[in-house]
Amino acid sequence: xxxxxxxxxxxxxxxxxxxxxxxxxxxxxxxxxxxxxxxxxxxxxxxxxxxxxxxxxxxxxxxxxxxxxxxxxxxxxxxxxxxxxxxxxxxxxxxxxxxxxxxxxxxxxxxxxxxxxxxxxxxxxxxxxxxxxxxxxxxxxxxxxxxxxxxxxxxxxxxxxxxxxxxxxxxxxxxxxxxxxxxxxxxxxxxxxxxxxxxxxxxxxxxxxxxxxxxxxxxxxxxxxxxxxxxxxxxxxxxxxxxxxxxxxxxxxxxxxxxxxxxxxxxxxxxxxxxxxxxxxxxxxxxxxxxxxxxxxxxxxxxxxxxxxxxxxxxxxxxxxxxxxxxxxxxxxxxxxxxxxxxxxxxxxxxxxxxxxxxxxxxxxxxxxxxxxxxxxxxxxxxxxxxxxxxxxxxxxxxxxxxxxxxxxxxxxxxxxxxxxxxxxxxxxxxxxxxxxxxxxxxxx
Length: 445
Fold this sequence. Notes:
Layout: H1 12-42, H2 48-74, H3 80-104, H4 116-126, H5 131-150, H6 170-248, H7 254-280, E1 291-295, H8 296-313, E2 317-321, E3 328-332, H9 333-350, E4 356-364, E5 367-374, H10 395-400, H11 408-418, E6 422-427, E7 433-440
Parallel strand pairs: 2-4
Antiparallel strand pairs: 1-3, 4-5, 5-7, 6-7
């Protein structure tokens, strides 16, 4: 298990850019440190030894920065693990140098102690997860250890400001002002840098998203065109085969009749598949949606009458229950018919001979609820999370009926969402299934 998620934000290239960015920031820190030491020297503030060691600390940072710059360049292929190690080494060494600077400028009296905050911000930018907390704990440990050592016999305290009354000495005011300015500039730089990076990433994502939408619209248009154009010639082939079957009758060899029947069956499958592809893209093109006021009960009764012959062929009982009230609803007639015809035909198809399919319509508060219930084989709970995915068919469904695209329930879900509704399933293996469609009723204000 890796600490770094496998995303573009934490790729090898992005981590290398973080190394280079941290090196650039450190050059600014070196310039600021030398400028601060020079300012202390000019205004004669602080012990000479402290100012000398500030220069030494700046030299150490320069040397370390050169090493940090050279090491990645020495290896063309610098992997993630070495990059992460290099970044952590830089951060830890910077904290050690900062702790030394805090010590030589008065420890608890030093305004440089606030610079620990920069490292926490940097850690949160560079590393994922809780690294910023780890570095905050390291900063606390170093600062606390420094104070503990100074208040013991192992380390002498450096009184950077001597006996100066801080607020009354202009040199101290200048020094504190200088630290404040540096803090504000660095904070502004970090904030602006992160914000600009975020904006660039967001702009790229928006451009990519627009391109994906254009591709999706092109694909949708192609699917609709192809399914519409291919359906007519295949239907013609099927009609021709039906005529040939009728004309030849019993006068043809049984093998030829079997081939014709199989060809007719295959053309039926292709036509159904093309219908599913056309239905799958329905609703993506806004101009094709036509909402109108309709009676949901009459629409369901019409679909039940159309499905009755298929139920009769399997000796199934197909019943619809509803009250005598009028169920007026504003919806897309085509989409609603596809929703309920898919659910009813699926129930008939997968329920055994002699089974029962019930359609029930009722109003609950501000919703219409339509349930399609069967006493068929049911759907295992482990497979219910996938049945609304495009092209997915459960193993039991494939075993029971080989034909099918796996698009039916995906189409139903899409068209229910078109009406701001919801689709629920309740099923147990061997105990049948219940599909519940909930459609919100828009109240006239």
